Amino acid sequence: MRNHGQRRITPSKDLQWIDCYPGGFQCGRLLVPLDYNNPDEDSAAIALVRLPASVPTNSSEYLGPILFNPGGPGGSGVDYITSLGANFATVVGSQFDIVGFDPRGVSRSTPRVSFFESRVERVLWGASGAGELNHSAITIGSSWARNKITGQLAVERDRNVLAHINTDHTARDMLRITEAHGRENLQYWGVSYGTVLGSTFAAMFPNKVHRLVIDGVVDVSDDYYTTKWTTNLRDTDHVLQWFFKDCLKAGPENCTFHEPSIEAMNTKLNDLYSSIIHSPVSVKTNTSYGIVDYARLRLTIFVAFYKPFAVWPMLATGLQDLIQGNGTVLYNILDQPSFRCSCNPLEHAFDSVPEAMTAIACNDGDLIPSGLEDALEHYREVLKVSEWGSVWAGIRMMCGGWSSDIPKTQFRGPIVGNTSFPLLLIGNIADPVTPLWAAHKVSKGFPGSVVLSQDSAGHCSIAAPSICTALAVREYFVNGTLPKSGTHCSIIGSPFAPNPPARGSGSGGSEIDSGGQTQIPLKLGTEVEDNDDLLEALKGLAGFRLGGYGSGMTPLHV
């Protein structure tokens, strides 16, 4: 399904749509300048997909396109929307076109970033981003050295493209996409790195904002654009404790890792770490094989932090089985199909590849010192923020070998602006890589913006079903109504018991969280005829595990 329809689309400046993927989707390829400083020279082609609105574009009910970005950087918006577009349409309303796009350099958009001459070469070299650096075959020194080589490959195989793969140019592409729809101002919902893109757009084009939601907000000015990558983990330790808390509440019948207290589960996990360091567990399944060592165990837990409803029951079972010497369930959480060569040179032409993240992040951020001592110092600094810094520190190291010849003249801040319409920012109380603190920090740069907090663990609000949050987003997009400052939304169910009845569903009442704060009413100005349909859409978003880089199920994801 990945590539159907895209190959036969001729890129154009007026964005022509053709039917493509099953489910009523349409695809297009928009020609944009490769270099906006020289717009009459080379072009790039941005791949798009949309789930069209249920009303004609000339209807008074039609509310225009909403652009989506899934994060990364380097995530495929086409994959995101072909997988989840119907769910998003249920959340925001069918009056909108639901539009995904592959950012320049990514997946189906051309020219595509690639540091390697073949898939085989890429796989043999291996990704050199995030991964456990403690008790691992991947040391800080080896990761640092490998990234030197990757940086050299990037420069040697550049086709005068890399300098134009950055957030500045992608923000300009979003404006071109909006204008190609006959609209002047952007409507947008971006998660994770998508909040870098969204807040950058708002700073570059403050008078071009119609509705803009950034969800799972990155500390963009003082961490992302400075290539520090240190503040992401401020709440990560809290996510692990949330896992234990949910397991405790669920009981042993629903959470197999259950112990009578959170402290006992902490102890059990630490004992498992010690055991695995001493004696890794071999795994052989019908389709794969490998070992669960300390690095695999830690990386699996960290990745599971992103999607509690999708992964935590499996994680609990995998941890308990591992204590008994069976690593199959835990190994399968990160297992990927074995690499196979293809006789069709076009079969993987639109794959998402890890070097897209490297190109975007390293082009966006400040140059970092190239010496090993700087890498070691950064590792120590990130560990001060969280014990999970041993997994996260490798991301910044990707830029240690990045060429200083690529100019940094594009817009990189300040990320502030008096926008034509206020922004809505959303953050979870326990997000593993985008702490709620960052949403409040970014909000200060945009007068009138509001931060909505969601009482859940996981990465971005869609990691857990909240009718409260969903209706706040819907009301914002449809009517331009922002939630009150300080709005706090709870979720429906828990990862270990996801199917309780929605509190107040269809009642027209309000949800009250455990702290006694009144939340968004369940029925707003825009009626939702059936909250059960909305809840099912939200469960689909929370439970979906999108494969590939920048998906939320890989550590190479902001």
Q: How confident is the prediction overall: mean pLDDT?
A: 90
Largest sheet: 10 strands, mixed
- The count of β-strands is 14
Question: Helix/strand-derived class?
Answer: alpha/beta
Strand content: 5-15%
Percent range of helical residues: 25-40%
pLDDT below 50 for ≥5 consecutive residues: which ranges?
502-529, 547-556
**Total count of helical runs of at least 4 residues:** 18
Strand order of the largest sheet: 1-2-3-5-4-6-7-10-11-12
Write down the Rg. 23 Å
Distance between the termini: 27 Å
Overall body shape: globular
Gist?
The chain has helices at 77-92, 119-125, 140-156, 167-180, 193-204, 220-224, 236-250, 262-278, 294-304, 308-323, 328-334, 355-364, 372-385, 389-392, 394-397, 436-443, 467-479, 531-543; strands at 18-19, 26-33, 43-51, 65-69, 97-101, 186-191, 209-215, 281-284, 289-292, 424-430, 450-457, 488-489, 510-512, 518-521. With 558 residues, it is α/β, with parallel strands linked by helices. A hairpin with a 4-residue loop joins strand 8 and strand 9.
